[in-house]
Amino acid sequence: MRSYFSRYIYSAVIVAMVAITPACNKKLDVVPGQNISPDQITTAGDVDATILGAYKSMQHYNAYGERYFLISDMMANSSELEFVGTFQNYADIFFHRQQKTNSIPEGIWDRSYQIINACNIVLDKIDLVTDADMKAQLTGEAKFIRAIAYYNLSGLFGKPYSDGNLNTNLAVPLVLEPVLSSDDISKGDVARATVGEVYTVIENDLKDAAANLPESNDTRANKFAAWAFLARLYMAEAKYPLAAAAADSVIESGMFNLTANFSQAFGNSANSSEDIFAIQQTNQSNAGTENNGMTTFYGSYPTGRGDVQVNTAILDLYEDGDDRKAFVYDGGSISGIDGVYTGKWATLYSNLPVVRLAEMYLTRAEANIRNGSAVGDAPLNDVNTVRSRSHATPLATVTANDVVQERFRELPYEGDKLWTIKRLKLSTGTRPYNDPKLTLPIPQREIDVNGKLQQNDSY
To answer: What's residue 32's pLDDT?
Structure first.
């Protein structure tokens, strides 16, 4: 059978490469909608164009342009946000009543495998690159982007890592070879891999990325972005010594600094000093609202729709004088609904921070506490470094739970809450961390055309 994602991933790379080709040395002879044949990728510039296409694809609203952040936060909705919009597919996810035909999981699934396929093409064609430094960089970028796509796919569609048997619990299909033409579509008709198998691929890809990427890479991924995601991965796996070491590698690199003020970490047209990895956005990459989903949903009218608003219960987490509390603002009335909003996503066309230095301080602190170690610095110092930037009162002592609460103060609306709930086996409202509705359904159209796929529980 031919699955939809197999049919779409090769055509999506055509679009991405055609869009990026004018900046390259050679125009690819590609007819949109037709197959990519191996002889159409013939130079190092073509390989670079393909990885740039993957970066471009991550800007899309079905990836980091919106849904990697927003959908995970909507599923973990109880104490941070409210959905007051009219889009039924979003409302169903927020209220945990999504069905297997919901268009949002379909979009995330398709876009993620398009991104993965672009990376697979780069790795397949990497020997066209003869310059050693360029070859290492492109290898590292492809491994990094593929890893974070699988990290999001597994987190949204698979069982939590913390929930039972890693060798039997299902995640998502592993497709590690390129789909270059319709003849290759069968490569995507595979069963779901286990959580353990997918996490092994993610870890290996991130390690390879860290080994191959340069320390500085302009706005593209660098080795510290790979280490930051390794820190996330190891926290999910409760491998605290490794998580502390990975976060420490980022912090002690000296490449990043907390912004002077909390607000300066957001709404920027260029990477801030604490952005370890960010999605680049401009008014051109954000044509219309397609890639503008965070501001469209979180921004108050007329900048955005105001569909996603702050649950004011979160304000109880902050003391008076904490700048993070002041970063929530009253946007007035939208269609008769009084709105309270976060300032994190209030600016159109601004970059989207994927992982910030503040997270690494909190990760190192929590991992050290849980491991009984002091890699890099004492946990109390790490937490107070983050708190002092926002003018919160320094803590006198710190526990692992204190650090988790600090994550909830520092990182709301950045896609962190659901992953923290799942790794620590917490609950969201009355739903435990492994509630089936905290996992998206495998798109029904995929089930229909690929008999090897098994649907998630409750769908």
So the answer is: 32
